[in-house]
Every structure is written in C-alpha cells, then in structure tokens.
Prior knowledge:
globular, 18 strands, 280 residues, 5-stranded mixed beta sheet, binds zinc ion
Amino acid sequence: MKLVRYGSSGREKPGLIDGEGRLRDLSVAIEDIGPATLSPQGLNSLRSIAPESLPRVKGRPRLGPPVAGISKIVGVGLNYRDHAKEAGLAVPQEPILFMKATTCLGGPDDPILLPPGSAKTDWEVELALVIGTTARRVPVARALEHVAGYCVANDVSEREWQLERGSQWDKGKGCDSFGPLGPWLVTADEVADPQALRLWLELNGERMQDGSTADMVFGCAELVSVTSAYMTLLPGDVILSGTPAGVGLGRRPQRFLRPGDRLRLGIDGLGVQEQQVTAG
Ligand code: ZN
C-alpha cells in the first residue's frame, strides 16, 4: 500500500494511492495515519478495504508527511562511503546517530525555508524507515519485522550550524522545513529489497546525487538493531539512513542553497519530492 496524508498543514486527512495512481480518501475508515495504523494489525485492516470502494479525491491537494504523531527522527551520519569521503571524514566503525527535531517535518513538496543567517544549507536524499512496532534491543535478524514501510526524505542540513558550532550536529539538522517526508509511506511488503534502491537528487534540473542503497555502510536491519540498543523506537519513529555522495558540501567549489533554487529527489518505487527554496 501507498499511504498518504493530504490537505493543508496540520489538517491533513488520510488517503491511499490506488493501483492506477489515483488518490483515494481513507477518512471513512480511519481518522489519521499515525502510530496505531502502522502495526501489522492496523495495516492488515487497511489492506482488507477495496481501494475502489473509497471516494476519489479531486484535484491535486498538497501532501503532508505520510505519518502523523512521529515521536522522534533519528539520523545516521556518513552511512555511504563516497559521502564520508567527500565530507573529508572517516567511514564510521559504528553508526553515527543524531536527532532531528520533529518540528522540522514537512510534506514532500513544501518549500524549504532558509533560516535567517544561513549561508550553508545543503540537501541529502535519503531512504527513511518508518517503525511499525516497538523496537527495543532487537537483533539484526528480526529488525526489519519492526519496519512498517519506507519513504523518501530530504535530510536538509545547515553545514555551518552542523559542523562549526560545537561538537554535535543537531543545530544544523532540525530547522523548520528541514524534514520533507513522503510523498507516500510505501508498506514494507511492497519493497522487495531495501538495499537495492536507486536514489537521486537534482538541483535546478542538474543531477547532483545518484546512488544506490546497496552502498550503505550499515544496512537497514543493522540500523534498526543498533539504534534500538540505545533507545526504544516507537511506532511512527523515523530513521534516516544516510545520504550518498553529491551534496553541496562535497562539491568544489561548494554549492549551497539559495532562494529560488528547486530540488527534485526520488527513490525507486517510493515517489518523488519537489521543493522550492525560499528565505525563511
Ligand atoms: Zn543525512
């Protein structure tokens, strides 16, 4: 299933994308797509609904993040070798974890707001994992059982605030609008192999990132397992699994976002995001 939330920010309604790519209204069946929806039982009850029995949604409404009530966003740093290299940093021996404030979440096509004083805002296309059942100290072999589905994410990052203002990264990761998620939550049964997905990003029509999740240093199962050793992952929690090479920080000369820039990014089978950059 491809689950979505549509409508104005803060007032989204649940929906799903049917086999023909049309948006259907799920609000007749559930109030919202949140943590309770993501359990195996919750998803199975949605699967029992025939999409064609749901009303079609007219027009092209704004999409919000496909899950409401996300309690935390865990980022993974330097999880692609070529990206660690372009950042001038060592490939980590153990996953580097950081937190992204949940207030940064946005819809897939919402504008990216450059915060006042920002000179180094950068892009990062990433595969996002969405937790479906509580994960606490889970072994690698069982870790993916806790994943409800996958999304495209842009881990927007202000590099000066991330790297030049103290020893941890969170200042540059959690600004409002720095967490576009979606367009869809694609349930895990429709992603045959999360380690075989192409992911790409274009700036003003020029391809900047073009990678494969096959090149992750630590795969999805390992990321869930390791993260769950340090903190309990709740249904709806998001893990951002890292970005391949091609970010602005790694270019010579470096290139950061300016008002008027347009980003387009996507992952095989998970849809495409499009963001306009504006002064915040
Ligand atoms: Zn990232």
